[in-house]
UniProtKB/TrEMBL annotation:
SUPFAM superfamilies: Interferon-induced guanylate-binding protein 1 (GBP1), C-terminal domain, P-loop containing nucleoside triphosphate hydrolases. The keyword Membrane applies. PANTHER family: GUANYLATE BINDING PROTEIN. It is a multi-pass membrane protein. This is Atlastin GTPase 1. It comes from Hucho hucho. Belongs to the TRAFAC class dynamin-like GTPase superfamily. GB1/RHD3 GTPase family. GO terms for cellular component: endoplasmic reticulum membrane.
């Protein structure tokens, strides 16, 4: 909750030094963008990925197929990482204006932050709105902002700190690592954590509290790591120097030409693919010990192949929706089968065309998984297409009407000739069928007792199929008799 702000500016005055009241704004109203906790740290020091929340962000229709730029800030706790992230948010929302920093009285909202010695952020939080940015080469990329738990707080173990840092580093395409007191601060991430990474990480640094500009070296490694010392001690005052540095750093970091797309094994990663990497990486950090590089390489290879499966499956679903989706008319079964075969092969080619890790033998099981998933989805498309066929939809009532008519005629004939027992049986079947027809109509109208409706459809379908088979058998028998007669003649 926000504190009383009557005697202070929002983030310090441009002209006069002002002591900052270190607290975050109240939570955003429902429906507005806000930080979402995607990596939860439990009391027993285990980690849980909120896959549903992460999926809502990364699988949104407008971003799921976009190449992703994942930006995070890492470092020791209580150094102002969330504070810096909020200025990044302010830039992303107002980058078109030279006055993106806003007025000094404007509240700094976004990721939660406050003063004091107790940690504020735990696990990993992601801003719920993914920003779409046009790169100079014409590509539109999705920019994801991640805030991470600070390392070495009094409530976390070394393994906790190492896990959060390693996960954020493996997920990020750009990561800012900094210390509030300078690059030589002993609380800066040490090699103990870096040893858990499979890719060598190189960090560049600017002078302590120095200006960020041409002096800063942006190293194009994977991921891009920036080690900076920009923020003052949380007990100090924010002055003009800090504001000047901030106005240089944030546009330089988030400018379209400087955004690095997440890349693994030479392939750019989409938001959907990043979800697979999240799920794969969290699995290897569930044990009591930090994973070995070999385990991390294995997880990366699995996620790489799963991302290829997801991309191919998306293509299949998208094209099949265009063929026989909800607003498309009924398609002849033979035509549907032919279109499915073509699109299925196209999806398999997409999978084969993705640059994958682990080798051909390793990827084969994922190819089989894709084939199985595509075939299962096709069965659903067949049912959906059949439901559009007016004759298929009318099969159950038509079958029941035929049974009622036959039983009515049979009861009349047998009653007329005096076979009362058979007439009674026919009348009983007629009554039961009529009740069944009324029940089916009620289920279709109300949507209740759907399981019973499915049973009625199955029984009616079985009767229909039996009649069709009998008709085919009799037709074939008649043709054979005619051929035999013609031979004798």
């Amino acid at each position: 909750m926000a504190r009383n702000r009557k005697d202070r500016d929002s983030w310090g005055s441009f002209t006069d030094k002002a002591t900052y009241d270190w607290s975050s704004e109240e939570e955003e109203p429902d429906g507005r963008a806000r930080p979402i906790q995607v990596l939860v740290v439990k009391d027993d020091h285990t980690f849980e990925l909120d896959e549903a929340a992460l999926s809502r962000i990364l699988l949104a229709e407008e971003v799921h197929n976009r190449e992703v730029v994942a930006i995070s800030v890492a470092g020791a706790f209580r150094k102002g990482k969330s504070f810096l992230m909020d200025f990044m948010l302010r830039y992303m929302y107002n980058h078109a204006s030279e006055e993106w920093l806003g007025e000094s009285e404007e509240p700094l909202t976004g990721f939660s932050w406050r003063g004091g010695s107790e940690r504020e952020t735990t696990g990993i939080q992601i801003w719920s709105e993914v920003f779409l940015v046009d790169k100079p080469d014409g590509r539109k990329v999705a920019v994801l902002l991640m805030d991470t738990q600070g390392t070495f707080d009094s409530q976390s173990t070394l393994r906790d700190s190492a896990t959060v840092f390693a996960l954020s580093t493996m997920i990020s395409s750009m990561q800012v690592q900094y210390s509030g007191f300078g690059p030589n601060d002993p609380t800066v991430i040490t090699s103990t954590v870096a040893l858990a990474l499979t890719t060598p990480l190189v960090a560049g640094s600017s002078p302590a509290r120095g200006r960020i500009g041409t002096e800063a070296t942006r190293l194009h490694t994977y991921p891009t790591i920036l080690l900076i010392s920009l923020l003052p001690d949380l007990c100090l005052e924010i002055d003009r120097e800090f504001i000047n540095n901030l106005q240089i750093l944030v546009p330089w970091l988030l400018g379209p030409k400087n955004l690095d797309v997440k890349e693994i094994n030479g392939s750019n990663i989409t938001c959907r693919g990043l979800l697979e990497y999240f799920k794969a990486y969290i699995q290897i950090y569930q044990g009591e010990e930090l994973p070995h590089p070999k385990s991390m390489l294995q997880a990366t290879a699995e996620a790489n192949n799963l991302a290829a499966v997801a991309a191919a499956r998306d293509l299949y679903n998208k094209k099949m929706e265009q063929v026989c989706g909800g607003d498309r008319p009924f398609l002849a079964p033979a035509e549907l089968q032919a279109r499915h075969s073509d699109i299925r092969e196209e999806a398999l080619q997409v999978f084969r065309g993705v640059k994958k890790m682990g080798g051909e033998e390793f990827s084969r099981r994922y190819l089989l998984q894709l084939e199985g998933e595509v075939d299962e989805v096709f069965v659903q498309y067949i049912k959906h297409n059949d439901s559009k066929n007016i004759f298929h939809a009318a099969r159950t009532p038509a079958t029941l009407f035929v049974v009622i008519f036959i039983m009515y005629v049979a009861a009349g004939i047998t009653g007329f000739v005096g076979v009362d027992i058979i007439a009674s049986v026919c009348n009983m079947i007629l009554g039961l069928t009529l009740i069944t027809l009324c029940t089916w109509a009620y289920i279709r109208y109300s949507g209740e007792y759907r399981e019973l409706g499915q049973v009625i459809d199955q029984v009616a379908g079985a009767l229909w199929d039996q009649v069709v088979k009998s008709h085919s058998f009799l037709k074939g028998l008649t043709q054979r008799i005619k051929r035999n007669d013609s031979r004798k003649g």
